[in-house]
C-alpha cells in the first residue's frame, strides 16, 4: 500500500501551472475588482457553453459508475452544474442585457472548442478514472481560486465579482470537489504505473487548458478567419 494519495501527486505535478493561473491578469484583476466588464461578460458567455459540455462529463460519469452511490453523486454534480453554477452565469449576463437564448448561442472560441472536445474525447474513450482525472482540475482549481479570493481583504466588497467568488468558495462547491478528489484516489488504487501516468497526463492537459481559458478571456479571443 502506498502511503501517499494519488491526488497529491497530481496536485504537485500541476502546481506550477495552477500558480500561473493565480498570477494571470484575468484573475489578479478579478480579485482586485478592476477586471473590465467586457472581459468578464466574454468569459461568462464562453464559460456557459463550456459548462454545457462539461456537465455531460458528469452524466457520463453516472453511466460509467460501478455503484449507485457514485452514480447518485454524479447526478448531483450534473444538477448542480446545470441549475446552480449555470444559474449564476444566467443571472450575471441578464444584468447586461444578454438573454438566455443569446447565452446558449455563444459561438465557442478556439480555446473553448479545444477544452470541451478534449473533455468529451476523454468521456467517449476513457475509463471512469480518466474522466475524473480530466474533470478534476476544473473543480479543484476553481475551488482553490475561490477560497483564496474570499480571504483577500476587499475582494468580497466588489458588487460585481462578489457573487462569483462566493460561488466557488462555497461549502457546497468545496464538498463536491473533495468528493471528486476522494474518488480519484479510490479509482487510482492498485493501478499500474502506466495507467497512473495516463491519468496524470489527462490532469495536466486539462490544467493547461484551464490556464488557456483565462488567457483566452483576457484576450477576448476570436477565430482568426
Ligand atoms: C473553464 C472552467 N473550468 C472550471 C469551472 C468550474 O466548474 C468552470 N466554470 N469553467
UniProtKB/TrEMBL annotation:
Q: Where is the active site?
A: 210 (proton donor)
Give the first-level EC class, as a single word.
Answer: hydrolase
Q: What are the protein's UniProt keywords?
A: Hydrolase, Thiamine biosynthesis
What reaction(s) does this enzyme catalyze?
A: 4-amino-5-aminomethyl-2-methylpyrimidine + H2O = 4-amino-5-hydroxymethyl-2-methylpyrimidine + NH4(+); thiamine + H2O = 5-(2-hydroxyethyl)-4-methylthiazole + 4-amino-5-hydroxymethyl-2-methylpyrimidine + H(+)
The family database entries (InterPro entries) matched by this protein are listed as: Haem_Oase-like_multi-hlx, TenA_E, Thiaminase-2/PQQC, Thiaminase_II, Thiamine_Salvage_TenA
Q: Which PANTHER family match?
A: BIFUNCTIONAL TH2 PROTEIN, SI:CH1073-67J19.1-RELATED
Q: Which Pfam families match?
A: TENA_THI-4
Q: Which organism is it from?
A: Paenibacillus albus
- Report quaternary structure and partners: Homotetramer.
| Protein name, UniProt field | Aminopyrimidine aminohydrolase
Q: One GO cellular component term, please give it.
A: cytosol
Query: What EC number(s) has UniProt assigned to this enzyme?
Result: 3.5.99.2
Gene Ontology MF, one: thiaminase activity
Protein's pathway: Cofactor biosynthesis; thiamine diphosphate biosynthesis
| Similarity remark | Belongs to the TenA family.
An annotated GO BP: thiamine diphosphate biosynthetic process
The task this protein performs is described as: Catalyzes an amino-pyrimidine hydrolysis reaction at the C5' of the pyrimidine moiety of thiamine compounds, a reaction that is part of a thiamine salvage pathway. Thus, catalyzes the conversion of 4-amino-5-aminomethyl-2-methylpyrimidine to 4-amino-5-hydroxymethyl-2-methylpyrimidine (HMP).
List, for all copies, the residue spans of the domain called Thiaminase-2/PQQC: 12-219
